[in-house]
Design a protein that fits this description.
- The chain is of the alpha/beta class.
- The chain has helices at about 5-10, 20-25, 30-40, 45-65, 85-100, 115, 125-135, 160-170, 185-195, 195-200, 210-225, 230-245, 255-275, 280-285, 290-295, 295-305, and strands at about 75-80, 110, 140-145, 175-180, 205, 230, 285-290.
- The strands form two sheets. Strands 2-3-4-1-5 form a five-stranded parallel sheet, sandwiched between helices. It has a two-stranded parallel sheet with strand order 6-7.
- Helix 11 crosses helix 13.
Amino acid sequence: MTETDQIEDTNTIPESVDLAAAYEESGVREVLRELDETMIGLAPVKQRIKETAALLLVDQARRKMGLATETPTLHMSFTGNPGTGKTTVALKMADLLHRLGYIRKGHLVTVTRDDLVGQYIGHTAPKTKEILKKAMGGVLFIDEAYYLYRPENERDYGQEAIEILLQVMENNRDDLVVILAGYGDRMDKFFESNPGFRSRIAHHIDFPDYEDDELLQIAEKMLAEQNYHFDDAARALMADYIRLRRTQPHFANARSVRNALDRARLRQANRIFEGAKGPVTAGDLSTIVAGDIAVSRVFTMADTNVQPLQAER
């Protein structure tokens, strides 16, 4: 290298980097704002996402100053009960990584075992590779990832999918981020049985259950998005519903709340249709009243301690 080349190389490396300016220019602020505004609760999850954003912004600054040599490992594990927002946060994460330039497309491909594992010899590899091809440049979200591994069935082909995934996670980590998701205890056992995954996962994020008041806020937000609202009595009764539903089988946080609201809207529509003697107002069509919630079997179960196979009604 000539003396002139050395001078030119030195001039291309900045003496400092404005992280605040990089933060604004990248659009990360917008993603984090949307995360705060659209998702209720999840404070520890939001904090981890902010920390990840900070890590990547600093990584980019280090690259500009010639201090970094390779892309940080970005594969993740999301653990928590159903309905705690794992898929929604994965979407936000894909957007964040795309804005920062760590993935080319920023799309999210969501799959389960059935999308990856075949039922006969020679079927699994093409299925898994096709999904990976579709996910390249984005984020692959594998829900209930522990079902990939079924050691009790010696004819199971999940191990073949696992081996392909591990190879791609290592060799294509500059073009694909994999997020494994599921119940915390089952994911721990999965990692113990498949240490190759644990060594490739850099970020473990636990999603806590929502508090009762957070679930009520989520219910009101879900209704508002569809131009519905509770009257005062219905809101109070929904709070009771949430408190009781949490103690009953198959509770799934925000997912259970959404199911309850779907049934309340069904009852509201039937009540209006059967009771209409003439024109109805916009207020009639958009208000959920206490009676639309009170007939739920959740209240009957609480009174009788009956636990049917399908708890939610």
